[in-house]
Input
Amino acid sequence: MVTAPERVWWRVPVSRAEMVWIVLAFLLVMVFFSLWMALWHGIGRQNATGAAYKVAPQTYREEVFAFARQWKVGEENGIPVVAPPPGSHVYLLAQRFSWYPILKLKAGETYHLHMASTDVLHGFSLSPHQWAIQLYPGYEWVMSFTPDKPGTYHIICNDFCGLGHQTMLGKIIVEG
Ligand code: CUA
Output
């Protein structure tokens, strides 16, 4: 029984047609992978672009509490409802298992949204704005946020952060 190939077929030059298909397949991969990813980053709203800074959890907590005290207009289930001036810096704190505070913003205004987790990894997911951002403890995200439509935007945590993860809900109230 012959187990070896009859000739060294891997040294046979690639035929023209085969080369054309290799090039076409390669170009398709480039289009779908690189070009599409780059394009989607630009036109897809789910890819938020922002800056991240290192921050100590305690420092960030104090920042958020001071911000909430300054602009508090109400309270819901023990969480302050905060209405900062349009276009200002606004703060959101992620911790097991809540989003603090409830922001009340104006539609069409651009805010500097600061976000950080002070304990474990949380996933900030905003609907209907379609953002999904991972919040690593020790880092503060600052993103430009323009809520375009009035309504209630729901925040859910989409990274498992412990027993109670599924109850980690928050909201941003957007007024017209
Ligand atoms: Cu926070 Cu899951």
Q: What stands out?
A: DSSP finds two helices and twelve strands in the chain. The longest helix spans residues 16-43. Residues 122, 157, 159-161, 165, 168 surround dinuclear copper ion (CB under 6 Å). The chain has a mean pLDDT of 90.
